[in-house]
Amino acid sequence: MRLWSGLARRTVAFSVLLGLLTTTVVAYFFFRRGSEAGIRSTTHFLSSALRATYVPQCQAAPAGWSFTLPEGLHLVAFDASQVLAPGWTAAPDTGPDPSLVARLAAGEEQPIILYFPLFEGKRWGGAVLMRGAESGPCSLIECRWPVTTVRLYGLRWMLLAAVIVASLGAALSTTSVIRPLLRRLRRLHRAAGQLGGSSYASTEDKLPDELGELSRVLDTAHARVVADAARIEEQKHALERFLSDVAHDLKTPIASLQLSLELAATAPSEEVSGLLVQGIEDTVYLTSLVDNLRLACQLGEGVDPLAGDPRAELGAIVQRVTRRLSLLARRKELTLEAAYPDAALWVRCNPTMLEQAVSNLLHNAITHGHRGGHVVAVLEAVGAERFRLTVLDDGPGVTPEELERLGERLFRSSQARRRDPRGSGLGVAIVRELGRRVGLEVAFVPNAPHGLKVIIEGPCAPG
Hints:
This protein has helices spanning 2-53, 55-60, 80-83, 98-105, 117-120, 149-193, 210-266, 269-300, 314-331, 351-367, 400-403, 414-419, 426-438, and strands spanning 66-68, 74-78, 112-114, 124-131, 140-146, 312-313, 335-339, 346-347, 374-382, 386-393, 441-446, 452-459. The protein is α+β, with helices and mostly antiparallel strands. Among the domains are: 2-156, no CATH class; 299-459, Histidine kinase-like ATPase, C-terminal domain (Heat Shock Protein 90, 2-Layer Sandwich), CATH 3.30.565.10. The strands form three sheets. Strands 1-2-5-4-3 form a five-stranded antiparallel β-sheet, with helices on both faces. A five-stranded mixed β-sheet has the order 7-9-10-12-11. It starts with a helix and ends with a strand.
């Protein structure tokens, strides 16, 4: 309502002032031109009558003759030789109008001028300068006429009509322009206040102007806010589930590690070795889980594995990971072997992230393998510009239905959960996500007659 009151008040005031100004200016020029044209058309007749009646009186009178008619016309005689002489100046309120003298000197036969006392401060309504005689003190006669009440009365009516017309125009513009504009603004204000909420209602303003464009921008912003809110809510629930799973996965190895250490502190010497082996396995699992959590957070925050154009030598990574996990494989009575070419195979990827991905694959194969089984990592060149890394195990493998879901965040097969309650499915998901980020192909296929084969293939990079 404040906007409506301010706009309406300003619109009315400005329209009235503009109407008055326009009407006054137009009336001034047209009235002046029209009056001059009317007076000019009767000047010849008037000048003949004045010369025939009053010039003889003027010539018979002493110098400085003047005469006022009953109708208010005032006649003043002047000597043309003096008035038109160079350097002549008119006396205030006595001499002829200088502008009329200048026009007469320029060749105009009977110059006429109209005065507007309201604006010019004159006490006459107008004047005309005409020739009275060939020479002498009556050679120029200036006829002045007073301001008539008819002109003032007409001027008042003209101004009153201007006020009325301007007020009607202001009212019409307020009704036809300001009110619909404010109605649209109120709808936009209401929609903006409900932006992103369930009660949001589009203004559906289809007009091709700035307010219509603003309405469409609000609709787009509302859709984006709703989509972002839904995505954030989904991420929140996913994070809660993830933290719950991680807390569960941490609880089991920590409790197992604590129990192994407590038993080792009081157990006979022949049992300490087995308890320490169990503690080592739990420690390796915790280390791997923490590294995966850190890497998952980095990928989730948008850290680019290719930032700075990094290089990683894949053969050295396979060698380090195999050496680091060999003790765990022996404790689980598995054979861990690796084969890689003598020539270096370079890959465009962050070395730490790539090493964690390779470690995840080998660690999963060892964790889910059978006693007496085998885990093999084979790195080979495919042509001159590509490589292939294959990780094989002869464990129980996964069903065809579960094979398609390997690599999904937090997914673990039912057999994997029965064999080892620890784990969150995060390691394999990181392998797939990292491969997607750096342009590597990751495939999970059965390893006949039983087991799992993971194949990572991609382009080599210059060292």
